Amino acid sequence: MRRRTFVHTGIAAISGLLLSGCGDASQPVVGDGSNGDDDDGRQWMMPEEGSSHARTWMAFGAGARIWGRDLLPEVQRNLVTIATTIARFEPVSMLVRPAEIGLARSLIGAADVELIPAELDDLWMRDIGPVFVQGGGRTAGVDFNFNGWGEKQEYRRDAEVARFVTSRAGVETLRTDLVLEGGGIEVDGEGTAIITESCVLNDNRNPGWKKRDVEEELAALLGIEKVIWLPGIAGADITDGHTDFYARFAGPGVVVAGLDNDPESFDYDVTRRHLDILHSATDVHGRPLRVEVLEGPSTVREAFADDDFAAGYINFYVCNGAVIAAEFGDPETDPAARATLERLFPGREVVQIGIDGLAAGGGGIHCTTQQQPAA
Q: Per residue in 314-363, pLDDT tens?
């Protein structure tokens, strides 16, 4: 279950850009840690991913400087496969650098994917895009101040994506001082969240913040009333241990968790600790969680496999009528993962696709997407 280690480009080369992702003092800070209302009295809530979507947002943002010329074509094909698969079930809008519109369109072909010119540093829409919330019959998007996962990668352009997407979606942008990526939080849509300490409480994002500070801000921004904290691991990958590679809600009260069976992996011990925490946790209603386990594959295709290869099934994406999940060529765990997801998401089609290029860069399907809830 290894994930992105530190990327090919160093942050020192862009020291002049490091403040571009931070909160603008001229913008209002929405969260005040009081009662979850904004200035107009609306109670914001982040819907569960399985709720109805208006569309999925993606970014055709892979570039040779980060991904390398050998891996880049496969990564671009993976992005297109994800987009065209989701487009069978709901609208997809994909941000594309203006110079690459033609390339993206040629790869997408006749599939109905909206291409929107935009400046990008990379492709991880889950982290750079807004986190959509709803309240009082309105939709908004939270800009969580993307800072390159703690200033590990260039992010000047990606720091603007959240506001660009909310503007394009025609919804207001909510601001905050909290630095958080969408991959760092899982919600059940009823007020429960799962978050890794290694990511959100890291000084490279939120120096001086304590659990209580984060919980109060998320109550105001996302309607979170109960946080289940997982330790995660800081420094082992570029995200400092995002939640969406460890535990996902399959619905209120139901969590699917990853288990790494490779004793050499940095995730081997922590996934077992996470399972212990989840088995003893309760949700916002006081209900014990039903925990289902998705073990990672024991074999993968060799073409792009290396130590950073993200060989896990947890990073699936739930869209309208379907669950889009990875397959790695393992004859035992691929069908087992599919069967588990079919049981957990009855009435949805489970579609497994190959994403070896993205996995070689330490990412997955969920990392490349961001859902906009239906009005």
A: 999 999 999 999 999 999 999 999 999 999 999 999 999 999 999 999 99
CA distance 103 to 87: 18
114-to-95, 103, 274, 353 alpha-carbon distances in Å: 8, 14, 39, 21
Given a cut of 70, whether residue 366 has pLDDT beyond it is yes
pTM of this prediction exceeds 0.85: yes
Q: Which among 373, 375, 365, 367 is positioned nearest to 84, based on CA atoms?
A: 365
Residue among 18, 242, 23, 232 nearest 142 (CA): 23
**Helix pair angle (101-108, 72-86), 10° resolution:** 60
Q: What are residue 255's DSSP bridge partners?
A: 249, 291
Structure confidence at residue 40 as a pLDDT band (50, 70, 90): low
Residue owning tokens 């009005």:
375
* Residue 132 vs residues 32, 140, 162: alpha-carbon distances, Å: 18, 6, 10
Domains and CATH numbers, the chain: 11-16+54-373 (3.75.10.10)
The more confidently predicted of residues 214 and 27 is 214
Long-range contacts of 89-93 (CB under 8 A, 24+ apart): 89/319, 89/320, 89/321, 89/322, 89/349, 90/53, 90/54, 90/55, 90/56, 90/319, 90/320, 90/321, 91/54, 91/55, 91/56, 92/55, 92/56, 92/57, 92/58, 93/55, 93/56, 93/57, 93/58, 93/168
Can you say whether the dihedral through the CA atoms of 85, 115, 166, 194 is positive or negative? positive
| Residues designated catalytic | 367
Residue 39 has pLDDT above 70, yes or no: no
Give 200's Cβ-side CA count (13 Å radius): 30
- When pLDDT is averaged across residues 184-200 and rounded to a whole number, the result is 98
